[in-house]
Design goal:
By secondary structure, the protein is an alpha+beta fold. The chain has a single domain (about 10-190), classed as Cyclic Phosphodiesterase, Chain: A (Alpha-Beta Complex). It is built from four helices and nine strands. The strands form two sheets. A five-stranded antiparallel beta sheet has the order 2-6-5-4-7. The chain has a four-stranded antiparallel beta sheet with strand order 3-1-8-9, with helices on one face.
Length: about 190
């Protein structure tokens, strides 16, 4: 029997902005982890925190090179900008939450950056999901929740709190390597704004 390895020349990739958690963001994350310690939640490693601009999944090496060349041109001269991280929330329904996140204040510059990234991906032939851009930082993925009231109280406690300012001066093309102990995000290329 012959087994074909169709992903030998492919990498699981995404385009993102790296975020280095400051004191207040780390304090909130630690508070969530402590108060939800009995719950089944896969917490994001602080070293992996980022804002996803586009998730591409398994992508051929040749296309990655084209994406990289396009991103370099599009990001050059875009100009650095700042974002404000604030609050906490969940994705999915209140009675069945799946993701705990930190929000990002409204930013025309971030929206514009996302648009030029999407336009470039379209032009090099990448098919993208047609869904709205909802910038956020994923703090944890909920597997199961026994005490939803504790999560609700934490979300209420932090929902309007400004956590930190983030200076955005580069976009990173990452490879996501899936491992049992958690994903490893390896920079493939970086693009200065």
């Amino acid at each position: 029997m012959v087994v074909l390895n169709v992903t030998a020349d492919m990498k699981r990739i995404f385009i993102a902005i790296k975020v280095y958690p400051g004191e207040h963001l780390m304090g909130m994350l630690t508070s969530f982890q402590k108060e939800l310690i009995k719950e089944s939640i896969k917490w994001t490693d602080p070293g992996n925190i980022h804002i996803t601009l586009s998730f591409l999944g398994d992508t051929e090496e040749s296309l990655i090179k084209a994406i990289s060349n396009d991103l370099r041109q599009r990001c050059f001269g875009f100009a650095a900008f700042d974002l404000i991280l604030s609050g906490a929330g969940i994705f999915k329904k209140q009675d069945d939450p799946k993701v705990i996140w930190t929000g990002i204040g409204q930013s025309d510059k971030l929206t514009a950056l996302n648009e030029i990234v999407k336009k470039g991906l379209d032009e090099v032939g990448v098919e993208l999901e047609n869904r709205p851009f909802r910038p956020h930082l994923t703090l944890g993925r909920i597997r199961s929740l026994k005490e939803p009231g504790t999560l609700e109280a934490l979300i209420d406690r932090y929902k309007n709190i400004e956590l930190q300012k983030v200076s955005v001066n580069e976009v990173i093309l990452y490879e996501s390597i899936l491992r049992r102990e958690g994903s490893l995000y390896k920079p493939v290329d970086k693009f200065i704004l």
